Amino acid sequence: MSKYSENYRTYIYTVELPVKIRARDYLVEYCNYSSRLVRKIKREGDILVNGQKVTLSYLVAKGDKLIIYLGEEDIDAEPENIPTTIVHEDEDILVLNKDPGFVTHATLGHPTGNLANAIAYHWKNTGVQAKIRFVNRLDRDTSGIIVIAKNKFAHQFIQDEMKENKVEKIYWAIVEGAVQAEKGTIDAAIGRPYEDSIERVIMEEGQRAVTHYQVIKRFKNHTLIQLQLETGRTHQIRVHAKGIGHPIIGDNLYNPHSIELIQRQALHAKRIKFVHPRTRKMMGFEAELPRDMSDLVVSEKL
């Protein structure tokens, strides 16, 4: 198969504009490439029009076949045979249901045994040679949907959608107490109380953070709630839940006296919806609650 065939490194477009336009401008204005990425393609990849290599200043016309080859990459993590649950995979993205207890990528405390190592193993076995680019991040003990891009453009495209608040991210959490309102919005800025602090707090000088919530089910002493992020600050849901007096159970950072029911924060990335970077169609992916949370919900312990 030619490297210019449509695959995770290559995108093919048919120009539909009635007037001629530079290839660079067509990619930025009509295909959603960033100027930075276009410059990178110039250095590391190829641009072809009707089978011939061209420069970014080449004038494309209606009916032209424009091929964008992003360039070769190597997997940037060591492969480890770690079981993962694949929700969806195609030429551009990999969607996983992450188990709690896994960090997404290597850190000083977790140089191996992380989700990136598991993805590297899967891609090595399926012939994918790409850097591992997480579109969304989950804390180590948060379970659920996580999206990985297989190339620079897919990552940039979905990240741009996130910045414009076009990506729907839904979480479920078990919190302390009976949440009285059926639904509501928490609009409270979040920041670090001091430099290098792991913990975040609600503070006026922090970054604006907005979380929408609604009650799914009330129990005797706890509530199962659904949360939708409008912004994506570090620990946003955990901080906001604590801020309204209903911290997430099992959260040893923001609610350390509640770990008798569950050994990690009871927070699950339930669903994500976004426009696919290649098909430009809306796609949604969902992950069922993991056993530790689902067992609690049907038990009489809450």
From TrEMBL:
<dbReference type="GO" id="GO:0003723">
    <property type="term" value="F:RNA binding"/>
</dbReference>
<dbReference type="InterPro" id="IPR050188">
    <property type="entry name" value="RluA_PseudoU_synthase"/>
</dbReference>
<comment type="function">
    <text>Responsible for synthesis of pseudouridine from uracil.</text>
</comment>
<dbReference type="GO" id="GO:0009982">
    <property type="term" value="F:pseudouridine synthase activity"/>
</dbReference>
<dbReference type="InterPro" id="IPR006225">
    <property type="entry name" value="PsdUridine_synth_RluC/D"/>
</dbReference>
<dbReference type="GO" id="GO:0140098">
    <property type="term" value="F:catalytic activity, acting on RNA"/>
</dbReference>
<dbReference type="GO" id="GO:0000455">
    <property type="term" value="P:enzyme-directed rRNA pseudouridine synthesis"/>
</dbReference>
<keyword id="KW-0413">Isomerase</keyword>
<dbReference type="InterPro" id="IPR006145">
    <property type="entry name" value="PsdUridine_synth_RsuA/RluA"/>
</dbReference>
<comment type="similarity">
    <text>Belongs to the pseudouridine synthase RluA family.</text>
</comment>
<protein>
    <recommendedName>
        <fullName>Pseudouridine synthase</fullName>
        <ecNumber>5.4.99.-</ecNumber>
    </recommendedName>
</protein>
<feature type="domain" description="Pseudouridine synthase RsuA/RluA-like">
    <location>
        <begin position="92"/>
        <end position="241"/>
    </location>
</feature>
<feature type="active site">
    <location>
        <position position="139"/>
    </location>
</feature>
<dbReference type="InterPro" id="IPR006224">
    <property type="entry name" value="PsdUridine_synth_RluA-like_CS"/>
</dbReference>
<keyword id="KW-0694">RNA-binding</keyword>
<dbReference type="Pfam" id="PF00849">
    <property type="entry name" value="PseudoU_synth_2"/>
</dbReference>
<dbReference type="InterPro" id="IPR020103">
    <property type="entry name" value="PsdUridine_synth_cat_dom_sf"/>
</dbReference>
